[in-house]
Amino acid sequence: MQNKYKPVWNRLEQSLPRPERVRKVIQMDFQEYKTKVEAQDDSFVNTIVESLYSGDAYLIKGAFSKEFMTDLRKNIHEYCRDRPSEFHKMLEGSPDFHRMIDPEAGKKYAVASCKHSCYFYAWNDDPFDLFTPINERWRILKLLMGLQPDEYEKNTPKDGVVDRIQVVRYPPRIGYLEPHTDPYLHQRLIFSGYMSKRGVDYQGGGFYLVGEGDKVINIEDDIDVGDICFCYATVYHGVAPADNNKEPDWEKDDGRWFLSMYSNASDEVPDRHTAAPVKLSIPEVMPS
Ligand SMILES: [Fe+2]
Fold this sequence. Notes:
The protein has 288 residues and is α+β, with helices and mostly antiparallel strands. The chain has one domain (5-285): q2cbj1_9rhob like domain (Jelly Rolls), CATH 2.60.120.620. Helices cover 23% and strands 26% of the residues. Strands 1, 2, 3, 4, 5, 6, 7, 8, 9, 10, 11, 12 and 13 form a 13-stranded mixed β-sheet that branches. The chain starts with a helix and ends in an 11-residue tail after the last strand. The model has no long low-confidence stretch (mean pLDDT 95). Fe (ii) ion (FE2) binds next to loops.
């Protein structure tokens, strides 16, 4: 399949530095986005790639149904309750697993965080039938990123790059992810799905992007359950603590939930390209 986005990405990446600061947030309806990306009309191709490479983020409304996200939240909560917290590297044969990453454990990762993450790979039994509906959306983004729509789908760790779905719960008050950039080598755009809504499921905090002058651009008020967001992976971003006057409880299912889709270099690859923290002085986005 011809990919008209790829040469535009290559030309820009060879001539200009990668974006670090968000420029603006553009909202688009899911059907319009899908139709335009798949049509690969020349002017759209140039406009959207140049916009993303200038640091624009896209908030796509209604990419998933609300039921898909609320069912997923409920299912993952039960799944984690019935299994121990574990950790497995991205090596050949890795099982699906979940891990409660408390503030101490979170400091051992390249990017510091506190979160409860549940990881799924396509080579396992896909207990919640996530890969079919998610790949339907991921293929559109892969095309936009200059990849084959089904690129990496059948890979396992020995192939070097694998698709991983992560369902995350940020516990009230202590949940966060420090500002960082993500690896752009295999996936140029970060790809997030929203499973909860600010003002309903949690108060304050949440996903933010960093603009010029370290300005925190928080887009959560525009987000509904089922929306997705993407921007170039090197645009600084993070997750600020929410529900600051609530007690964190790892067993509950309240608070902020989030879905992440990433094509990662596996742990079978030496010196793999990973996320990196960015040291900014923005106290309001860090846990107190
Ligand atoms: Fe990230």
